[in-house]
């Protein structure tokens, strides 16, 4: 009877979230190719104006890495109508806040304003697109900013470069082998003409998705969008033809050193398919099963019970073209790195051999249901999701339907996907060690 009640309760939650969490939106294209997504939510007097550009670290030249992240900073320098240093002052003085972020696949800018400032947000984003001032003075200023960011977040942070070394060994042809922040010597060597060319190629309306979400009037928003963004000229079409990686058929062994750590770490990494695939979603569930929370399989076994590890986990780093599935551990005491690998491998083999329990499966479904609800709980989160699903997945309505994919994943699929991708002959084993004295 108890199991029956729990099951019915879960069904009830699913039914409620299916209805309450549906995100209504409208999307269309301007004549210049800019994709527009509108979401009306009048529950609070707030509006998000955001633009996602389909450009990231993978679009850079091999000897000019870091350009996309650099532009994340550079395009706050000012425009023909916004003086240098005034961008953030304008936003804050009008009760707003703003930010931007860059990945290997895209760059995202956004403002959050009181809803009566929607026109200001649209004007500022159109200014960034139409009238940016890209001069040597701004390049020099932001070069120092980026260098300081790299020193703080990468060079002087423990374990901050493990992903860099994983990607470097996992990808031999595809530009995912680089880092988002890039190499400082590449930015130092870049000419002003190269920065101008990067802007001209990628920061164009036909490579951009505008999302306006929150307390808006749809018809008024459309008129303002046409007024501010409609006249911007279309750019040249962007063609992408990234090299394909050869399959990994035998173990890759590598060693990396970090001067900021005292305790070594071990990573095993597997190349996996695009974030757009069903298999990638199954790998998400496997990650949660192995390492989400203190009751997860790896944490309970290696941290709580055997006390072999200080930290252990699984990461499904899913990206537009490929994914990287990473299992990692930091040993406790005298435990060896290879012993951690053996213990982690045992749990992977169990997933490949046996179906996870009904109880664990139900727990996973509840976790992903909760993630779905949380991701759509704020207008800021909704705006980001709408942009991401359109730009990287090509299906904006996944904001409503992706949870159905997770719900439909079976225990049998979890077993089969683990068999397909998480095999010793298809992986990198990276020892991440304190730098030699």
UniProtKB/TrEMBL annotation:
What GO biological process terms does the UniProt entry carry, in alphabetical order?
proteolysis
List keywords of the entry alphabetically.
Hydrolase, Metalloprotease, Protease, Signal, Zinc
Q: Which InterPro entries match?
A: Metalloenz_LuxS/M16, Pept_M16_N, Peptidase_M16, Peptidase_M16_C
Organism domain of life? Bacteria
For the Peptidase M16 N-terminal domain, which residue ranges apply? Answer: 36-181
- Its Gene Ontology molecular function terms? metal ion binding; metallopeptidase activity
- Limits of the Peptidase M16 C-terminal domain: 190-367
Signal sequence extent: 1-22
Family as reported in the entry's similarity comment: Belongs to the peptidase M16 family.
Q: Which PANTHER family match?
A: NARDILYSIN (PTHR43690), PROTEIN YHJJ (PTHR43690:SF17)
Protein name as annotated: Peptidase M16
This chain's source organism reads: Polaribacter gangjinensis
The record lists the lineage as: Bacteria, Pseudomonadati, Bacteroidota, Flavobacteriia, Flavobacteriales
